[in-house]
Amino acid sequence: MLWTEPAGQCNPGKTRGSTHFSIVRFSETAYSEIRRFVVIQNKGTFSQCIPVQTYRGQAATKPGLVVDDHAIIYTGPQGASPPPLLEGEGITKRALRVEPTRGEHLESQSRINFGKPYAVEHNVKVLEIGMVAPEHMYYLVAYFQQAVGCS
């Protein structure tokens, strides 16, 4: 989906990768980018989701991340192996496979961040990438509950 949020201190009017910075109301800076999410729960007018990011190709080696909240997430048919961890990446959670829709795919550096849930309104345009594989649904729920402190 297209995601826009406050940018803080940055260089307005510039682009960085797939991100675009712009000046919005009250002369504030915002950035927009395509974001990927896994839907955890439909809440009626919005869904509770967790983000999937490559961190600009750094995966979970990006400084400042809570590595324990992350796992590899990848697309592929049943039996497909996950991509390897990057050098220095300390992820210990099982990788989650997504059964792709219409040839969609996730980049090999894609990581799911269980510790940062978002509310995504149902009135925004989205593109379905696929469904978490049935054999990994238990891990999806357990890792999310662990990260947000549910028991």
Q: What does the model show?
A:
The chain is mostly beta strands and 151 residues long. The protein folds into two domains: 1-34, no CATH class; 35-148, SH3 type barrels, CATH 2.30.30. 8% of the residues lie in helices and 37% in strands. It has one helix and eleven strands. Mean pLDDT is 89; it is low at 11-15.
What are the key terms here?
mainly beta; DUF6590 domain-containing protein; SH3 type barrels; 151 residues; 4-stranded antiparallel beta sheet; DUF6590; 7-stranded mixed beta sheet; globular
Average pLDDT, all residues: 89
Question: Helices and strands: which structural class?
Answer: mainly beta
CATH level 3 topology of the largest domain: SH3 type barrels
Shape: globular
Main β-sheet: number of strands, strand sense, barrel status? 7 strands, mixed
Whole-number tally of structural domains:
2
How far the N terminus sits from the C terminus, by CA atoms, comes to: 30 Å
Domain DUF6590: 1-141
Pfam family, one: DUF6590
Organism: Zopfia rhizophila CBS 207.26
Protein name: DUF6590 domain-containing protein
How do you describe this structure in short?
It is built from one helix and eleven strands. With 151 residues, it is mainly beta. Strand 3 (19-24) and strand 4 (28-34) form a beta hairpin.
Which helices and strands appear, and what pairs or packs with what?
Layout (H helix, E strand, L loop, with lengths): L1 E5 L8 E2 L2 E6 L3 E7 L1 E7 L3 E8 L16 E6 L20 E5 L10 E3 L4 E4 L8 E3 L4 H12 L3
Parallel strand pairs: 7-8
Antiparallel strand pairs: 1-4, 2-3, 3-4, 5-6, 6-9, 6-10, 7-9, 8-11
